[in-house]
Amino acid sequence: MPDDQDLAGLRPTGSAQSSGLSPELLVALRAAFAGEVDRRLPRLRRLQQQPGPQVLEQALRDAHSLASSAAVVGAADVARCAARVEAGLERCLRGPAPGLPAPVAADADQLTALLERWLHA
């Protein structure tokens, strides 16, 4: 479960606010990110229930995209967590044993919780 420090990344950071982007553009980017989260979140939830190769590959793509998009909108903690999930899934896909190791599953759970809170913040 994310703590208050994790949730700090749900709010725009100074880098997003001082990026030189207009407030209107930041609002539009956050709305686009919310739509992306809405599309990708169900697939990330599926990761725990069906950790087969196809689901792992899709979750890897989702985590990669979410890491980049979260960084753009200033959700630094979300971006870092998504990057950890991406790295863990890459190891899973290269490894000899199929499945989802507990540390990767925990990171995926944290990412899911952060994204759900971001949608409702």
Please outline what is shown here.
With 121 residues, the protein is mostly helical. Helix content is 77%, strand content 0%.
List the helices and strands and how they pair.
Layout: H1 4-7, H2 14-17, H3 23-49, H4 53-72, H5 76-94, H6 102-120
Helix pairs in contact: 3-4, 3-6, 4-5, 5-6
Name the descriptors.
121 residues; mainly alpha; Four Helix Bundle (Hemerythrin (Met), subunit A); 6 helices; disordered N terminus
Kindly describe this structure.
The radius of gyration is 14 Å and the shape is elongated. It has six helices and no strands. The model is unreliable at 1-15 (pLDDT under 50). With 121 residues, it is mainly α. Helix 3 (23-49) packs antiparallel against helix 6 (102-120) and helix 5 (76-94) runs antiparallel to helix 6. The protein has helices at 4-7, 14-17, 23-49, 53-72, 76-94, 102-120. It has one domain: Up-down Bundle (Four Helix Bundle (Hemerythrin (Met), subunit A)).
